[in-house]
Design brief:
Length: 141
């Protein structure tokens, strides 16, 4: 019997590699895009810890990505006035413009996956994936 985790990992790798190829023209990677989208969706300044928590990654893994984004002038780092040990991150105008122009084929890919898996809508599929993730997280804690 095939291992479902291995198949999910292979699909994930394929999707990430495809997306990285599409992102080459913007000179960013999938990991960098994830951080930019989290900041963009927050409509506010976020701390590094907030971003790590949302993406479910280690804070130390995030640091290198943030340094690259700052060097590319895609994020603006400032000190939190209430906690000088905490940096706040916001998108630069350059990053906001780039995000507005991105066409990542996400809608078509999600639709293909939903149709292939037999879901009547992308929302239904995403709901089921969230349910699986929540159950996995509950089991881990």
């Amino acid at each position: 019997m095939e291992n479902i985790g291995q198949l999910i990992k292979q699909i994930s790798n394929y999707l990430i590699n495809d997306l990285n190829n599409r992102l080459k023209e913007y000179d960013i990677t999938f990991s960098q895009l994830q951080v930019l989208l989290v900041i963009d969706e927050s409509n506010d300044k976020l701390s590094q810890k907030d971003i790590a928590d949302i993406l479910k990654i280690k804070h130390t893994s995030l640091i290198d990505v943030l340094k690259i984004l700052e060097r590319k002038e895609l994020i603006i780092k400032s000190i939190n006035k209430n906690d000088v040990k905490c940096n706040e991150l916001a998108l630069s105008k350059k990053a906001k413009d780039m995000i507005r122009h991105l066409d990542l084929g996400r809608d078509e890919t999600q639709e293909m996956i939903a149709t292939t898996l037999g879901y009547s809508s992308v929302e239904e599929m995403l709901s089921k994936f969230r349910e699986v993730l929540n159950k996995l997280e509950e089991g881990v804690k």
